[in-house]
Design a protein that fits this description.
The protein has a single domain (about 5-135, about 195-270), classed as Alpha/Beta hydrolase fold, catalytic domain (Rossmann fold), CATH 3.40.50. Helix content is about 40%, strand content about 20%. Strand 7 (about 185) and strand 8 (about 190-195) form a beta hairpin. The strands form 2 sheets. The protein has an 8-stranded mixed beta sheet with strand order 1-2-4-3-5-6-9-10, with helices on both faces. The protein has a two-stranded antiparallel ribbon with strand order 7-8. It has helices at about 40-50, 75-90, 105-115, 140-155, 170-185, 200, 225-240, 255-260, 260-270, and strands at about 5-10, 15-25, 25-30, 50-55, 95-100, 120-125, 185, 190-195, 210-215, 245-250. The protein has 9 helices and 10 strands. It has about 270 residues and is of the alpha/beta class. The chain starts with a strand and ends with a helix.
């Protein structure tokens, strides 16, 4: 067995994406979430490499991936398609496990719905949730603007490092508003209701495992956190009512479980796969 790490690059419409691959066992492709990088997930990646051949990468505008003039769910999905194509060219013994955290979980569900023959199994970590109503409503906007403005200010202190995120606070907000519509199927601006991500789940027949945080929005009993946590659980209840074959494990954690609860997350992934 070898634990050497291979470094290579995927490209998508002028964007260069650094990819790392190493470990032992079945191939597992790990898709990070929005504002997250390979460097931030290093501990989880190392834990998974004990049992899996792990492929990790950075989305456009994250880490050492190049910046882009366009940030949207479709563009990030194109990055993932490019990564999977490059990994495939380098050889796979079987259809890989796709794992994704938060925004990354949504990306791999959409990818699997479009390329079902290239996926062996999905592991969704606190994401891809068909919430029954949007997370971000008008009363939430000031809080989220402050949150991401603070994040953007902190990013200045790590500029040029493997943990940097080049997106502006407004770009991150716009992406989260877009994701709300993709998950819930509800666009409050134009009063449109659609199937949301549930429609993607209906196209999947591979095994799906979910690791969800009980306090996704934090464990405060004040402010907007209780509503968001209730909405998060209601989305999963909605999903398993329609797709009862999906396995769900709840971890007593916040949305940062991929950093704060690495041993438990790694063990749940190993147990499920």
């Amino acid at each position: 067995m070898t634990t050497d790490t291979e470094q290579f690059t995927a490209r998508n419409n002028g964007v260069t994406i650094p990819v790392s691959r190493g470990g032992n066992g079945r191939t597992l492709v790990l898709c990070p979430g929005l504002s997250s990088t390979q460097a931030e997930l290093r501990e989880l990646i190392e834990a998974l490499r004990r049992d899996f051949d792990v492929v990790s990468f950075d989305l456009r505008g994250h880490g050492f991936s190049s910046a882009a003039d366009r940030y949207s769910f479709e563009a990030f999905l194109g990055d993932f398609v490019a990564v999977m194509a490059e990994v495939g060219r380098r050889g796979l013994s079987s259809a890989p496990i796709l794992a994704g955290h938060s925004y990354g979980a949504d990306l791999i569900v959409h990818y699997a719905a479009e390329y079902p023959d290239s996926v062996g199994e999905l592991v969704l970590i606190d994401g891809a949730n068909p919430i029954p109503a949007p997370f971000i409503t008008t009363p939430d906007l000031p809080g989220f603007r402050t949150l991401w403005a603070d994040l953007a200010a902190w990013q200045e202190s790590i500029s040029g490092t493997a943990r940097q995120v080049l997106l502006t606070a407004q770009e991150i907000l716009d992406l989260n508003l877009e994701l709300d519509v993709l998950r819930s199927g509800i666009d409050l601006d134009i009063d449109v209701v659609g199937p949301g991500i549930l429609d993607r789940y209906r196209k999947l027949d591979c095994p799906i495992r979910m690791v969800m945080a009980t306090s996704m929005a934090g464990d405060s009993g004040e402010g907007r956190a209780p509503r968001h946590n209730r909405l998060w659980r209601a989305g999963i209840e909605r999903l398993v009512r329609e797709q009862p074959h999906i396995s769900v494990s709840w971890l007593d954690a916040t949305h940062a479980l991929v950093v704060d609860r690495v041993p438990e997350v790694a063990r749940l992934i190993l147990d499920r796969c």
